[in-house]
Amino acid sequence: MKPSLDWQHDIDAIVVGASAGGVTALRELLGALPADFRPPMLIVLHLPRHRPSTIAEVLGAYCALPVYEACDKQRIERGSVMFAPPDYHMLVEDEASVALSLDEPVLFSRPAIDPLFSSAAAVFSNRLLAILLTGASTDGSNGLAAVRRAGGTAWVQAPEDATASMMPAAALAYAGAEAVLTLEEICQRMRNRA
Fold first, then answer.
1. From CA 182, how far away is CA 188, in angstroms rounded?
2. Which GO terms describe its molecular function (predicted)?
3. Which residue among 90, 121, 152, 155 is least enclosed by CB atoms within 10 Å?
């Protein structure tokens, strides 16, 4: 396992993926972020593809940071949280912006976690933290492997702690992780920035 992370010096971005049970998990995670939390957080939550989402507004009520839904070419701002919109993959284009994509769904999902994680790994490499939470799919396994190959850090919610264990269990079997944590442990690390 890598040593404790110093948010101010070691991490340029955080990517998060969640599916079934993700709304509750993300409410807790975003509620744990202190107001002075600096790394930008980019999130894919599996959403219904053909209707608007209010997830950024709903979860933003629990977060001390600005929370918004991404637009194409949206700037990545420090100290903010960005959600992929329904029916678009969110890709990290460069260190300053994201792009939205209508590429084919991944494992029936668009947005999907794998494209976000893989594109972020290509840009941020060893300065990326990827967090995979609850879900009933294998989306996220390939992306987590890409993060680790690039030297980034992977945290996976302990399958026994997840509402839906399939996603974290599949990712651990396929890609492994630097840390396997309960949701509360992840939240505590966010609060402590370590």
1. 10
2. phosphorelay response regulator activity; protein-glutamate methylesterase activity
3. 155
